[in-house]
Amino acid sequence: MPSRKKTAMFASAFFTCVFSFAMICVVLATQHWMSSEVHFSGTNSTITVSLTYGLFSGTCEQFVHAGLQVSERTFQVADNLGNGKAKSMITAIIVILVLSLLSSLLSSGFTCTNAVSNPYQTFLGPTGVYTWNSLCGIFILIAMILFPVNIQENSLSILLAQGCFPVLQKHIESAHTYGYSYWIMLLTIFLNIASIIIIYFYDHARYSKKKEQERPIENAPKDVILF
């Protein structure tokens, strides 16, 4: 059976891993990744499309500066994008987040296993926890980088606005605000770092204690050396 200290440390890491897993689920399930105001020039006025969307769905609303407002409608991101680069990158982000979800799940399993048993000399020990938490954090970071790239380089918001209202004409400007679904990913990275730090402190303390016990006899006090 593991010591109380080990159980407490790995149990703490387990809860951070579970929380990380839950946060990734929230990121995938919610549509508050981005809020955009996209402006187009109309025949006699300026048209503004207000968008709020995530990886799978969103809402859009059209305002004409003359005072006309089109009621809010819901759209599917994949349907509005067709088969271009923007859709491919959205698909890549989803795949990466699913991989991070699996990594977080495995990390939770490894920390739980270590909290109740002693698979210390195998990959199921701290090495496995370090690996899966690191991979999860890396996947999340990649997703956080790819999404803004998709906004800026592939004009994601503009394409979605034109998908909602096909009659829109020349694009003038856009304003973007990242929502909580996006920033939760940053929290997830911190949770993975916290898990690694917790296990590192335990691992380091155990290593130091082991080295102390294996101290060579020449370093022992002279009065306890037997001849």
From TrEMBL:
Residues 1-29 form the signal peptide. The keyword rRNA-binding does not apply. The chain crosses the membrane at residues 89-117, 129-149, 180-202. Its main location: membrane. Keywords: Membrane, Signal, Transmembrane, Transmembrane helix. Coiled coil: none annotated. Gene3D superfamilies: 1.20.140.150. GO terms for biological process: sensory perception of sound. It comes from the Eukaryota. GO terms for cellular component: membrane. This is CLRN3 protein. It comes from Cochlearius cochlearius (Boat-billed heron).
